[in-house]
TrEMBL record:
Protein's name in the database: Phosphate ABC transporter ATP-binding protein
Protein origin, superkingdom: Bacteria
Domain (ABC transporter) ranges: 13-255
GO CC list: membrane
Gene source species: Thalassospira mesophila
Amino acid sequence: MTNAPHTRGKSKMAARDLDLFYGDAQALFNVDLDVMEREVTALIGPSGCGKSTFLRCLNRMNDTIDGVTISGKVTLDDRDIYDKIIDVVQLRARIGMVFQKPNPFPKSIFDNVAYGPRIHGLVNSRDELDEIVMTSLEKAGLLKEVKDRLASPATGLSGGQQQRLCIARAVAVSPEVILMDEPCSALDPIATAKVEELIDELRSNYTIVIVTHSMQQAARVSQRTAFFHLGKLVEVGETDQIFTNPRDERTKGYITGRFG
């Protein structure tokens, strides 16, 4: 795997002056962050520092939580995603999400991947649907393992296979951005390595943001790393620079294990 960034591209998503409150408690403070197109951006920091909260701002998942208020701006291709006229269902098709614990639907492997294209009206024929399912499974590195049992329940897959199925499900609606909230924390080392390899392959076509507790994982899969602490974005930069020459003492302290 290579950490070499592409020639510096454009910002695909951006947060500006982003504050978030759970009731009266402030969880994010004045976050300014650019997510670069077709790169993997890793969000690191201690538990409870705001990484996952920030990630959920990027596809408005926090809208589903009572008592959350947000101020500031989050853009996708320079368009404010919190604009009242934005269709949130369509937004979440453009910005897919893979959760910490694999969450396949209680359906067949085929129907898990076909679900998104069906509900978003992306297909007109069974042949078209078959092609989307097969292509998505191939992109998720899963087709060879499941091609003879597409009608079997997805819940019969191993944990690592279930997580790659969830990635296939996210990819099936042709998103532009894929958010991953600690996608390997429930997986063994072999399954983790497969998912990391997959992330490296996917970034040629997708913009990826990953929350990880593993600094080794951030170093392996990302081109840019953002360090959060106590709800604030402390530092962001090229991954190699963050890990070898952090500018902020708090980043240095976290990376060297002095706290966190």
